[in-house]
Amino acid sequence: MAKTRAGEAGNIYPEHTFSLTTTLMPMSTTMAGHGMLTRRFLARAFSSSSSTRTNMRPLTPESLNPNIRNVQYAVRGELAIKAETLRDRLRAGDKSLPFDKVISSNIGNPQQKGLDQKPITFARQVAALTEWPALAELAPGVFPPDVVARAEELIREIGSIGAYSHSQGVPFIRQNVAKFIEERDGYPSDPANIFLTAGASAYPLYTATLAQYNGAPIPYYLDESKGWSTSVESIEAALKEAVAKGVEPKALVIINPGNPTGALLDEATQERLVKLCEEHSLVLLADEVYQVNIHKRATHSFTSFKKVVSKMRSPVPLVSYHSTSKGVTGECGRRGGYFECTNISEEILALIYKMVSVGLCPPVSGQIGVDTMVRPPKQGEPSYALWKEETDTIHAALASRTHIMAERLNKLPGIELSEKAQAAARAQGKEPDAFYALQLLDRTGICVVPGSGFGQEPGTWHYRLTCLCPGVEEYVSALEAFHLEFEAEYGV
Predict the structure, then answer these.
(1) What radius of gyration, in Å, describes the C-alpha atoms of the chain?
(2) Neighbours of 173 (CB within 10 A)
(3) Quick one: residue 333, left, alpha or beta (phi over 0 = left, psi -120 to 50 = alpha)?
(4) Are strands 449-450 and 463-464 parallel, antiparallel or unpaired?
(5) What is the pLDDT of residue 208?
(6) Where does the Aminotransferase class I/classII large domain lie (predicted)?
């Protein structure tokens, strides 16, 4: 029997009544009927007597692909799950907790409840008119003319956003992404090499993806003593060790600006990394979703790996990522992003296209979000003044919160975890930084991510927290008070 397609014969809806006939239709009729043969077969199977089900093996974790069980994702792991449990208790009126709200500082999700970053008006207005074009007539004068023009332009290119788009993404939006890249870098970009995506996370959950496909991660450490800079020497040592163990390196992942450290690569280091990829025949995966999250632009500027590779005329295969979830856009739930392929052969591009086609297309609403990110209002257009005010306000707020947190947390005493604290952690089967983070959550309602979820130098412990929380003075005060209490309890 032919396999069925999800969304057709594979879906069995409870309101459907299926014929239990045993007559098989000709194959041509079956195909034209979108899997009716399979539906009838499944209906008959479900009507079988209970005696045929007594020997059915139960579905257990052990019966799944073992690679699935090995997948880990730190920012959505144990602490995030516990944080949601505590949040549910507060919603239910539980007054026994020593805090009145849970602060999710474990992941960059700026528009979530409690963080409440204001969406960019231009992006939401365009989204509204592409969702329901009649709004422009029902509310005349409400939407600025450039928003109406943008929505009409997108609708002409897309049609209804309820329809599938091209599997690679709407061609018109890919053209706009290519123009954005060209203006940013000063080098050509081909829309045929750009794939719109459901955010960037479908690809760069690196260790999780490797576990799923039974790959082997080759970790390298950033240099904490030099502002968490990328150490080319550390990467070279990791490659040498991997090869000695019989592991064949395939790709180098660079997150720039860095996550979770915030470090920004200088161009000279980027050039060394490109040469390293040439030497070891590595694909370079450039995760650049934080390229707008730079607070000292007068002294620190972002340079893409696309620009560096193009300037060097390097043959290194490069895949560069960007997303609407970060920066000032912060549209995490809209799921929009793209990746651009550089120095990738037509044969490989065809295979990538085949694989993305399995998912039919990225969300069209997310693609529209990408368009508003790469084509914001220009100076002189009706929406520009408000867009500029909103984006400047978000930048300033993030910069201020970052400065306050760094200044005050760096003044705390006893940042090293004592032997007593480490012993208490291991007695509970926890890594010391995870133990610290769980205690922090239980006592303050602040959810962070332990550094052990990302990988860190042996014998060092860290936690990551975002700078998105409003009321940062109160937030940092809670962190300070907890740390002093923890030190008093475990500091000896």
Answers:
(1) 26
(2) 27
(3) alpha
(4) antiparallel
(5) 67
(6) 203-467
Amino acid occupying residue 193: N
Tokens of 104: 């999710």
Average pLDDT over residues 399-427: 82
How far is the C-alpha of 129 from the C-alpha of 143, rounded, in Å?
Answer: 9
Q: How far apart are CA 115 and CA 113, in angstroms?
A: 6
| Residues 287 and 200 sit within 8 Å (Cβ to Cβ) | yes
pLDDT value for 94: 86
Q: Would you state the structure tokens that stand for residue 162, as one six-digit string?
A: 């309820």
* Confidence category of residue 74, pLDDT binned at 50, 70, 90: low
* Closest listed residue to residue 321, CA positions, set 259, 247, 379: 259
Answering whether pTM is above 0.85, one says no
Q: Give the Cα separation of 221 and 238 in Å (integer).
A: 9
Q: Tell me: the pLDDT tens digits for 5-26?
A: 333 333 332 333 222 322 333 3
Question: In this structure, which amino acid lies at residue 338?
Answer: Y
Where residue 216 falls among pLDDT bands split at 50, 70, 90? Answer: confident
Least confident of 48-52, 173-177, 351-355, 441-445: 48-52
Three-state secondary structure readout of the chain:
CCCCCCCCCCCCCCCCCCCCCCCCCCHHHHHHCCCHHHHHHHHHHHCCCHHHHCCCCCCCHHHCCHHHHCCCCHHHCHHHHHHHHHHHHHHCCCCCCCCCCCEECCCCCCCCCCCCCCCCHHHHHHHHHHHCCCHHHHCCCCCCHHHHHHHHHHHHHHCCCCCCCCCCCCHHHHHHHHHHHHHHHCCCCCHHHEEEECCCCCCCCHHHHHHHCCCCCCCCCCEHHHCCECCHHHHHHHHHHHHHCCCCCCEEEEECCCCCCCCCCCHHHHHHHHHHHHHHCCEEEEECCCCCCCCCCCCCCCCCHHHHHHHHCCCCCEEEEEECCCCCCCCHHHCCEEEEEECCCHHHHHHHHHHHHCCCCCCHHHHHHHHHHHCCCCCCCCCHHHHHHHHHHHHHHHHHHHHHHHHHHCCCCCCCCCHHHHHHHHHCCCCHHHHHHHHHHHHHCEECEEHHHCCCCCCCCCEECCCCCCCHHHHHHHHHHHHHHHHHHHCC
Query: Model confidence over 303-360: pLDDT tens digits?
Result: 999 999 999 999 999 999 998 888 788 787 788 899 999 999 998 888 888 888 888 8
- By the 8 A CB rule, do 190 and 239 touch? no
Nearest to 459 by CA among 407, 401, 416: 416
